[in-house]
Structures are given as C-alpha cells and as structure tokens.
Amino acid sequence: MFTLFFSIFAAILGLSIISPILPAIATDLRVTGIWMGLIFSGFAISRAIIMPIMGGLSDKYGRKIFIASGLLLLAVISLLYLLAHNEYTLTAVRLLHGPAAGMVIPVVMAYGGEIAQEGKEGRAMGTFMMMYFLGLGVGSFLGGILWHLFGMASVFYVLSCISLIALLLVLPFVPEVKNYWRIYWYNYIYRASMS
Predict the structure, then answer these.
(1) Residue ranges of the Major facilitator superfamily (MFS) profile domain (predicted)?
(2) In the chain, which end has fewer C-beta atoms inside a 10 angstrom radius, N or C?
(3) Is pLDDT of 12 > 60?
C-alpha cells in the first residue's frame, strides 16, 4: 500500500509544489487577464474532466497501466515547464499536467479500495486522503524552499524525480488486480453509514 500512498502524494505534489512559484512565473512572462486565469485554473479543470474517463477506462482495462502511464507523464510534463516562455506554452503545459494527475488519483483510489482488507476500507481511504492533503501541504512548503535555495528550475527537477521514483516503485511492486470490482459512490456511502 505504501507505493499507492506515495503515488497519490506524487500526483498531488504536481499542484502544490508549483503554487509558490506560479505567480512569479506568470509575472516574469507578463501574463495578464484571461491568460492568468487559465494558467491557474487549467490544471484543475483539465484534471476534473479526465478523472471520470480514466476511472472508467481502468475499470475495463486494469489499474496498473493507467497509474504507471500517469506517473510517467507527470515526470515528463514537469520538465516541460522549463520550456514555457510565454502565456500560450505555460497554459498548454498546465492543461497537460492536469490530465496526467487525473490518470493517477482516481485509479489509485479505486485500486486501494479493491485491495484493502475487508472491514478496513475506511482506514485505507482515510490514509489515501491523508497523503492527498499531505501532498498539498508539504508541496507548497517544499516548493518555496527549493525556489529560495536553488532557484526556480529546481522545483521542476525535483517534481519530475519524485514522479519517476513513484513510477519505479509501481512497476515492480503493484500487481495488476485481475478480478477487480467497481466502487460505486452510493455503495461506498451506504457501507460507510452502516458501519
């Protein structure tokens, strides 16, 4: 389960570790108006659109391939920020970054629900959410420290490395679940209310 927890952490880190420096990048590029809004919201909007699609595809084709592919994309896209030199390329990178994270988060949550021991599903989901919010909190702090000590580019190199480490953990240590079952929200809420 540690590998799954770390995958969630790495995926959400992509949002939070960049947050301290994104305003500075936008200022350096002299971004204003609607482009500023797109740069900041592009990640969340594109991620929200892709998440149910990835969840459905993983129901059909298996979880591991989507987790691994998402982490690989996160590692690559993190470095694309270094090539963003205007509002168009920065917005494009943000719009790509969101779906990469969206490939990981819902699929890891579904996988975790499937392999959690019976009667301990709530604990597993609680731990996943802990890693989610830990990624939000630690990422912002880490991003600020890296920027201050080593410069802006270091943030993207570290983010890429963390995503790559998560991928290298997933490949050998996360088996594909053959007889997976779908987690329907109404069923999850019903079970939680009855326990």
Answers:
(1) 1-195
(2) C
(3) yes
